[in-house]
């Protein structure tokens, strides 16, 4: 019998690969729709969705300053996490942590975040920061469980409502 964690693999992948692009589309669609459904009782306008997906695909996640990690469950792409350098060389930012809904609850998120922490260390960071929204309760719970502490704002991102950090020592 295979445990849920041994079915997972996590590896760097180009942001333009078909799997990475499909996961970016799924991520952006979910978080955008969630925002609009909560605040305006509607889904994201399809034209807006396509513009934003195209505009944000790279997201600073290309070497040498960033990395996109893709998690696979049983060999099938199931999630992402990104790490990118900040202006402070000792700090990297965690972004785009996402698992497909049918793969959640199987240990993949913690593995993705651990791999992202390793990628941040490889970029020279000793601290990892992130921001998230208030309605992404599951994300906030995950980060707290993994040792991230809520902090004062470290950016002025338009949708950021909670900021977290973790020392990687």
From TrEMBL:
Entry annotated with the keyword Nucleotide-binding: no
InterPro entries given in the database record: Acyl_CoA_acyltransferase (IPR016181), Bact_Acetyltransf (IPR050832), GNAT_dom (IPR000182)
Keyword Acyltransferase carried by entry: yes
UniProtKB keywords: Acyltransferase, Transferase
Pfam family, one: Acetyltransf_1
Domain named N-acetyltransferase: residues: 21-169
Xref: PROSITE patterns: GNAT
Molecular function in Gene Ontology: acyltransferase activity, transferring groups other than amino-acyl groups
SUPFAM superfamilies, per database record: Acyl-CoA N-acyltransferases (Nat)
Transmembrane segments: none
Protein name: Acetyltransferase
Origin species: Streptomyces glaucescens
Upper classification of the organism: Bacteria, Bacillati, Actinomycetota, Actinomycetes, Kitasatosporales
